[in-house]
Amino acid sequence: MPARAMSALLTAVEVRRGHLFPWTPVFLSLGIGLYFTRAAEPPVWALWAFAGAAAVLALAARRLPELWAPVLIALALVAGGAALAGARAHMVAAPKLDHRVYGALEGRVLVLDRSSSDAPRITLDRVWIERVPPGETPRRLRVALHGAGGVTAPPPGARIAMMAHLSPPSAPAEPGGFDFRRHAWFKQIGAVGYANSPAVMLSPPEGGATLLVHRMRMALSEALRARIPGDQGAFAAAILTGDRSAMSRDTIQALRDSNLAHLLAISGLHMGLLTGVIFAALRFALALWPRLALRLPVKKIAAAGALAVGAVYLALSGGNVATERAFIMVAAVLGAVMADRRALTLRAVALAALIVLVLTPESLTQAGFQMSFAATTALIAVFAALRDRPEGGWRPPRWAQGVLAVVISSAVAGAATAPFGAAHFNQVSQFGLLANLASVPLMGLLVMPAAVAAACLAPFGLAGLGLEPMRWGIAWILCVAERVAGLDGAVWPVPAPGPAVLPLIALGALWVMLWSGRARALGLLPILAAFALWSAAQRPALLIAESGGLMGAMGPEGRALSKPSGEGFVALSWLENDGDRADQATAFARPGLTGARGEQEAMVAGQRVTLITGRGWAERIAPACARGWVVVPQYVDDPPAGCRIFERAALARTGALALFPGADGPRLVTARTLAGARLWAQ
């Protein structure tokens, strides 16, 4: 390309050295995505090659003319992202179980939360497992306490013992589905399970700063629930300490259906509101002292104070990934204030994203990262465009500007996060904008300021003066969630998209927001292509669980399941990915599977598939093989000759199965094929 044309292109895209920074997390993400989308684990020498290439390209960019430097930096970031993600995956490597275990275990309590079945759940480290060699013992494991008496909620730091059923982290429920093994790998969780017997405390909580802070969180959570009973107190504990263990399932579902569940997650909204209230209060208080206000940089002092409070909030909230992202973003904004720079810019967002990706590259694949940065980037881009619009145009009256800002911010944040929320959670809240307009302003104007007031008044025994107004605001939010979730058509179920959909949407949206000039409209093309692919997404005609005990066939009324209960997590995952809000019992009653229970059949592209369960299963295999393929949730040592049989050992190797109709019969896809031979899948 001629130099003049290249110069014009770089000027249009604004990626010279002065304008490249907002693009750095984009190129770094491309490299990270390259690592995670590979079908096989790259060898270690390839990771070193990527790292070396990144270093060489970065050095070359410093020596070559400015014209070519941005291109080399972009390539260096892509190579560096791939190396960074691979290095992180190897750094967190830890033993994991490769078989099921039932027996005694001991461990130190790290985290308390609740499972998807609403049971208390604990994460343990310093683990000992009966009959498991020390070199094969997981570094951490997670156990749900189902009906366990005794110490069902041991304090963090305590060492406990129990009898538990343990298994390796679960593989995807269907080919291409969410891979919990990868999620657990980066958390160093090598086993999951449940306990029905009481847990016994072996030793009291240990010391240590981390565990001490966690116990303070739990104590604060219990104190809040004691002062504010019911779901209102549980909501207060969730937004202040990150402890959602007392939230009822019905309330959580209502918040999800009304698109208000983000209020529970301690993320950018909470961190921004808290530090914003502290910043404004400190600046106002210091300004009341004229001598101090005239001699000291009051604005910078207020920013430093707000940053310190944000750090304390980060510690008390548990320091999860979403909260860490929020704190980094707030730190970037307040740091800009202290450096006399414009605070809310795309460069501040890029800095926060860059820090998060460098520290935890795996967060790129998580819904929290995608949704939080999508909302933040879109809000800054839209309000920057409104701020820079030409003079002379219509401007709202001063009294209406605040109301309009709330409406615009809620609409923009909702639109930016909707595709990611729909892809990850398989639903869109039809009235989410209405619910957010009725609730989010109250979070900023009443709930969070009242929480700050309660914290300031607590040493004087007057915390109730802040907690009571806080309770009023929370009661309103929960009422809005319940009313909106109860409206007809409040939730629009959405089927799971293909793997290319979200990357296309993200790249197209980033092009629109970061590119300058009329060419930014080209970013709409990949977005439209993504939605076209999503609308044409084909769900499997037949799904078979890895256990072999559950089968689901797509029928005229939706997916029909082979049993009304059992393997509920897999069944719910299938239905949600279909965009189906039915429960397992309803799906069992649908047409789609034929035959009696214990020998159910489905037809896919002319091929009969029979699921054989129950007593006498061995004698029924041969007749079923004469009719077509057979699924058996047992180990079959000597299957009939010429029989296509999916028994327990074979399914353990392939993972869950999906069958699609094809021109020459069914097309079979295995979970193992799509997940690839990765570190976490071995």
Automatic annotation (TrEMBL):
<keyword id="KW-0472">Membrane</keyword>
<dbReference type="InterPro" id="IPR004477">
    <property type="entry name" value="ComEC_N"/>
</dbReference>
<protein>
    <submittedName>
        <fullName>ComEC/Rec2 family competence protein</fullName>
    </submittedName>
</protein>
<keyword id="KW-1133">Transmembrane helix</keyword>
<keyword id="KW-1003">Cell membrane</keyword>
<feature type="transmembrane region" description="Helical">
    <location>
        <begin position="20"/>
        <end position="37"/>
    </location>
</feature>
<feature type="domain" description="DUF4131">
    <location>
        <begin position="42"/>
        <end position="199"/>
    </location>
</feature>
<dbReference type="Pfam" id="PF13567">
    <property type="entry name" value="DUF4131"/>
</dbReference>
<feature type="transmembrane region" description="Helical">
    <location>
        <begin position="498"/>
        <end position="514"/>
    </location>
</feature>
<dbReference type="InterPro" id="IPR052159">
    <property type="entry name" value="Competence_DNA_uptake"/>
</dbReference>
<feature type="transmembrane region" description="Helical">
    <location>
        <begin position="399"/>
        <end position="422"/>
    </location>
</feature>
<keyword id="KW-0812">Transmembrane</keyword>
<feature type="transmembrane region" description="Helical">
    <location>
        <begin position="367"/>
        <end position="387"/>
    </location>
</feature>
<feature type="transmembrane region" description="Helical">
    <location>
        <begin position="442"/>
        <end position="465"/>
    </location>
</feature>
<feature type="transmembrane region" description="Helical">
    <location>
        <begin position="44"/>
        <end position="61"/>
    </location>
</feature>
<feature type="transmembrane region" description="Helical">
    <location>
        <begin position="344"/>
        <end position="361"/>
    </location>
</feature>
<feature type="transmembrane region" description="Helical">
    <location>
        <begin position="301"/>
        <end position="323"/>
    </location>
</feature>
<feature type="domain" description="ComEC/Rec2-related protein">
    <location>
        <begin position="239"/>
        <end position="517"/>
    </location>
</feature>
<feature type="transmembrane region" description="Helical">
    <location>
        <begin position="263"/>
        <end position="289"/>
    </location>
</feature>
<feature type="transmembrane region" description="Helical">
    <location>
        <begin position="521"/>
        <end position="537"/>
    </location>
</feature>
<feature type="transmembrane region" description="Helical">
    <location>
        <begin position="67"/>
        <end position="87"/>
    </location>
</feature>
<feature type="transmembrane region" description="Helical">
    <location>
        <begin position="472"/>
        <end position="492"/>
    </location>
</feature>
<dbReference type="InterPro" id="IPR025405">
    <property type="entry name" value="DUF4131"/>
</dbReference>
<dbReference type="Pfam" id="PF03772">
    <property type="entry name" value="Competence"/>
</dbReference>
